[in-house]
Amino acid sequence: PGTALVSTDLKMGELVGLAQIIVERLGLTTMATKLNTGVDMHAEIGADVLGITYGEIQARRRSTDPGLAHAAEEARDSGKPANFGLNGGMTDLDTYVLYARKSYGQLLCEQGPDESNDAVHARRRTKAIRIIDAWKRRAVDQQAWIEYVRRSGYRLGDRGMRYDMKHPGFVNLWRRGLSRTEATNNPFQIV
User: Fold this and answer.
1) What band does 148 get if pLDDT is binned at 50, 70 and 90?
2) How many CB atoms lie under 10 A from the CB of residue 27?
3) CA 78, 80, 86, 90 torsion: positive or negative?
4) What is the crossing angle of helices 140-151 and 179-189, to 10°?
5) Which end of the chain is least crowded, N or C, by CB within 10 Å?
């Protein structure tokens, strides 16, 4: 009695936080402008994967044809692991495939009944490459952020806090000793 538990999920909250940091640190505004004008950054990637325009994927998502709407929604959802994993500096293809499956339920493709594990894994890697390439075409500000972090030697200070990721006290604190991941993710994940 007298207490409440409140849980919220801000629409694209981490992306908004990252966009603001990119504006403050780098002076780049493409990502912030997209988010401020209501662009769904996941749908942008999904549109590229499908080979259609952003307007087309949004129209398909609103379609009364359940098959068309579902395919568009699935393509849109394929942008989530890209926007969240790659923004944090993820670079290994197999790690991306695993991250997409474990974090977002994205199998990237279904395994056929007579298909070997190696064959389906190869197809998943191929689709992951298409998604990553779409992200690279769209995520110019985010790539500049990752490069900024790399050039900083993975040492960042933000809002009065000091992130010295090479300091022994930070090893295994948040990201299991992955200093690049800590440095690229932590400033916008704690905003």
Assistant:
1) confident
2) 8
3) negative
4) 120
5) N
* Residue 15 token pair: 């992306």
Alpha-carbon 93 to chain mean position? 14
Torsional class of 166: left (φ above 0), alpha (ψ -120 to 50), beta (otherwise): alpha
Q: What type of residue sits at position 183?
A: A
Separation between Cα atoms, residue 45 and residue 35, nearest integer Å: 14
Q: Distance (Å, rounded) from C-alpha 161 to C-alpha 66?
A: 48
Residue keyed to tokens 């200093």: 179
SS (H, E, C) the chain: CCCCCCCCCCCCHHHHHHHHHHHHHHCCCHHHHHHHCCCCHHHHHHHHHHCCCHHHHHHHHCCCCHHHHHHHHHHHHCHHHHHHHHHHCCCCHHHHHHHHHHHHCCCCCCCCCCCCHHHHHHHHHHHHHHHHHHHHHHCHHHHHHHHHHHHCCCEEEECCEEEECCCHHHCCCCCCCCHHHHHHHHHHHCC
Could you tell me the two tokens for 158? 């933000």
93-97, 137-141, 153-157, 163-167: range with highest mean pLDDT: 137-141
Q: What local confidence, expressed as pLDDT, does residue 53 receive? A: 97
Output the six-digit token pair for 123: 């197809």
